[in-house]
C-alpha cells in the first residue's frame, strides 16, 4: 500500500521518465495531491500497464491540487549530462506548480536543493508514496505520447513500441539507418561503438 504523506504538510512528489533511453527527452513531473486522495490502481507506474497509466493520467490531472510536466530535450541532455538533465527537469516541473510545496519527495537518490524547500530522496519512491507514483504516471505518459508523435517522423526506429529505450530492435535500426536528430549524441548508441560520425 502506498503511503500518502511523509509529513502533514503540502508535499510535492517528483519523478522522471526516459533516463536510460537513447533517443528523445527525459521527462519530469511534479504533483501535489490533496490529503484525501485515494486510488487503488495508482502504484509504481513501472508496475502499471501502458493502458492503466493512460487511464490514470486524467484522474491525476483532475484530482491533483496542481501538477507540472517538463521535457528536457537531447541537445540539453548532451550538454549537461543525463543526471543533471533529470534534476533540471524536476526543478522545472516544480516551477510550474501553482501552489508552492512545503516539502519535496524525490524519486531516486540524487537531487539539487530547490529554492529553500526541504526535500528527501527516496529510492524506489514511486512504489512507496502516492505523490511520487502520480508524478511517475504523468512523466511516463507525457513522454510516451511525445515518442509516439516523433515515431511518425522516423518510423524505422519503432519508438511507438520501444519509446527510445535500447531494445535489440532499436539498436538494429540505429546500426542500419544511423542516428536521427532525436538521438542523444552523448550516449553510446551501439555497444561496440567507439565514435559515431554525425
TrEMBL record:
Gene3D superfamilies: Ribonuclease H-like superfamily/Ribonuclease H. The keyword Metal-binding applies. GO terms for biological process: DNA replication, removal of RNA primer; mismatch repair. A divalent metal cation binds at residues 15-16, 107. InterPro entries: RNase_HII, RNase_HII/HIII, RNase_HII/HIII_dom, RNaseH-like_sf, RNaseH_sf. Its cofactor is Mn(2+); Mg(2+). Coiled coil: none annotated. One of its GO terms (molecular function) is RNA-DNA hybrid ribonuclease activity. It catalyses: Endonucleolytic cleavage to 5'-phosphomonoester. Its EC number is 3.1.26.4. Pfam families: RNase_HII. Its main location: cytoplasm. It is found in: Cytoplasm. HAMAP family: RNase_HII_B (MF_00052_B). Belongs to the RNase HII family. Endonuclease that specifically degrades the RNA of RNA-DNA hybrids. This is Ribonuclease HII.
